[in-house]
Amino acid sequence: MTSETDPVFEAALAVLGDHCQPHSLAAWEAGDMPQALWRDLDETGLLSLLLPEDAGGIGAGADTFAGILRLAGRLAAPGPLAETCVGRWLTHAAGLPVPAGAMSLSLDGNEAPGGADTETLGVLTDGGLVLLPAAGSTQRRNLAGEVRLSPAASNLRPTALPAEQAARARALVSLGRAAMMLGALDRVLVLSLAHANTRVQFGRPIGKFQAVQQNMAVLAGGVAAAAAVVAAAARDVDAGGPGLLLAAARARLGEISVEAAGIAHQVHGAIGTTREYELHFHTRRLSAWRAEQGTPRAARRLLARRFAGAPAGALWETLLATG
Amino acid sequence: MSAAPTFDFLPPLLPANAGSLRAEVRDLVARERAAGRVAVKDRIGMAYNAGFSRACGEAGLIGMTWPKRYGGREATAMERYVVTEELLAADAPVRGHWVADRQSGPVILRYGTEAQRERFLPPITRGECFFCIGLSEPDSGSDLAAVRTRAVREGAGWRLNGTKLWTTNAQNSQFMIAICRTTPQDMKDRYHGLSQFIIDLSLPGVSIRPVINMAGGHEFNEVHFEDVPLAGDALLGTLDEGWKQVSAELAYERSGPERWLSTWQVLAELNATLGPALGDEAEDRIGALLAETLTLREMSLSIAGMLERGMTPNLEAAIVKDLGTRFERRTVEVTRDLAELATERGLAVPVRLGSLLASAILMMPAFTIRGGTTEILRGTIARGLGLR
């Protein structure tokens, strides 16, 4: 995945790092709009990350996209960032005018991220893509207090899409959520480690106690596994593979996020359960995101069905053909 | 306060010839199966077959990364990884040469004298010379600095006394690389004064006693040394600096596919038989196991690639072993649950699956002990995180 040395990553870090501070997160959750952040994201071209260069975009692949979304997740950035990037790419690929500003993308009419003055809500179904005004959708807030949109019923005729484009858009949206979860896990690990190293009880930092160390090791193991499988999923999406590594990522993240949040809270003790401390921004997002733009259960089912009944001696070879 | 690591699993450098290497291994396994040297087993665990090891040697699959002048083929670590993974997934009887290929040979190549390399490496690559590892002792399990086996100078050589325990495959091995105390322990630096020796197990004074495991299998041994005369050239590497050599060895040992493929046959059989018969509940749980398999494989592959790039991802390697062995346990638990569900629904549990499961249940306690207990590994991870 894209890292610190990539200029696109540096630009994203500058913008997101500047705006996404704990007090801003609280204000956005209370109803403020992250207009300045989204204006800067647009001006630096990050919202056109996936658009081809000849269409005024950056022309990034899934790997860079995942790296940027990991960063956005680490900073709990508000609004439909992944969906805007994918939506711009998809509308352009479909020959439609690319909507300005923030847009969201619903898969099969399911709930999609809102916030950040989202104007357009794309609905991607087997029939194609429909663009709706976001204002007509039903709004709700998820566990993390983020705006979620359910598209209104529509009689508009969908714009048909080549199967490859539709599949890529679906994969990218799900990958975006996976990468954001990885970012949230990164941050949860950093906060827990800092707390374990500084919180003193019985005369020493709690991180010196073996019971705490063992749990921290499990937490770190989960984050490491998440990092490996999300990176593999991004490569798989770029290669146009059958999406099995992405399914593995969503399935693993469903479990890892629960285990990691549990340990992080246990390490933090009471302070971690308060609104004034930062941890909840990330653990609430992990709880909400695991079943957004795909679910762990659906991912497990997809994997199981792909390999069900393969003769025992042939399963390995079949599995390696996953890309 | 140390910064938390950002885990970046670099993309694996899968070799361009990965496909042909896999085909090479599959052909070999098929030929050896026809010759009766590779069985479809009904219990888990790495089997021993000297003939198969020789066939691997003839096929150039042992010591692949070593220089050609010692019998290797100067392949990359990733090429070796591909071959290893294929052999394990095929449940091939690699026990004989396993340790020499993975560990003993590389240690001799790195720390041995030219004479030692010329003596040991070519027969290892031919699949004729098997090694075992002498680390643990009756009073030295997780705490390796506590070893009491002593090598005392005598003339130009050494005299060896002590006992090694949990020595896998000693009964079929010609040599052991053992860590022994050569200088009395100094509590200020407990790891100083240990040295590695290559011990010829046919020497007088060596006795090997089987230690049968709870599954009824003979993998472990107790190896007793009583006044064993060692020649001067039995010392491997630097006197009193054996601990450093062993640590380097352990780092390479923890991230391999053997850390999550022990129960592969159970999962493959479950997926082939009961899985399709049980519907939703089986789908959900088998899907989770497949997701873990794919994830662990990516981690192992990525770490092999990082090692090849000259990096030392020790933290990541310890994590793979911890996650891998937990996954193996989970495979057993899921299979047991689904077998019970099948029985409840009046479905017969296929005979081979039942036997594999039974052996896995009995082998399971060892997964999280061998090669470093989960507690020790997590301590290593905690150290990597800056907590100790």
From TrEMBL, chain A:
The protein's required cofactors = FAD
Q: Which domain of life is it from?
A: Bacteria
Q: Does the keyword Oxidoreductase apply?
A: yes
Signal sequence bounds: none
| Alphabetic keyword roster | FAD, Flavoprotein, Oxidoreductase
Acyl-CoA dehydrogenase/oxidase C-terminal domain: which residues?
Answer: 176-306
Question: What protein does this entry describe?
Answer: Acyl-CoA dehydrogenase
Describe the family membership recorded for this protein in Swiss-Prot or TrEMBL. Answer: Belongs to the acyl-CoA dehydrogenase family.
Q: Where are the transmembrane segments?
A: none
Q: Which organism is it from?
A: Pararhodobacter marinus
TrEMBL record, chain B:
Q: What keywords does the record list, in alphabetical order?
A: FAD, Flavoprotein, Oxidoreductase
The Acyl-CoA dehydrogenase/oxidase C-terminal domain sits at 284-385
Q: Where is the Acyl-CoA oxidase/dehydrogenase middle domain?
A: 132-228
Highest taxon, organism lineage: Bacteria
Q: Which cofactors, by name?
A: FAD
Residues forming the Acyl-CoA dehydrogenase/oxidase N-terminal domain are 21-128
PROSITE patterns linked to this entry:
ACYL_COA_DH_1
Q: Which PANTHER family match?
A: ACYL-COA DEHYDROGENASE, ACYL-COA DEHYDROGENASE FADE34
Name any one Pfam family assigned in the record. Answer: Acyl-CoA_dh_N
GO CC, any one term: plasma membrane
Please report which protein family the annotation says this sequence is part of: Belongs to the acyl-CoA dehydrogenase family.
What name does the UniProt record give this protein? Acyl-CoA dehydrogenase
The cross-references to InterPro entries, in alphabetical order and at most eight, read: Acyl-CoA_DH_CS (IPR006089), Acyl-CoA_Oxase/DH_mid-dom (IPR006091), Acyl-CoA_Oxase/DH_mid-dom_sf (IPR046373), AcylCo_DH/oxidase_C (IPR009075), AcylCoA_DH/ox_N (IPR013786), AcylCoA_DH/ox_N_sf (IPR037069), AcylCoA_DH/oxidase_NM_dom_sf (IPR009100), Mycobact_Acyl-CoA_DH (IPR052161)
Native organism taxonomy? Bacteria, Pseudomonadati, Pseudomonadota, Alphaproteobacteria, Rhodobacterales
**Recorded GO terms, molecular function?**
acyl-CoA dehydrogenase activity; flavin adenine dinucleotide binding
- Native organism: Pararhodobacter marinus
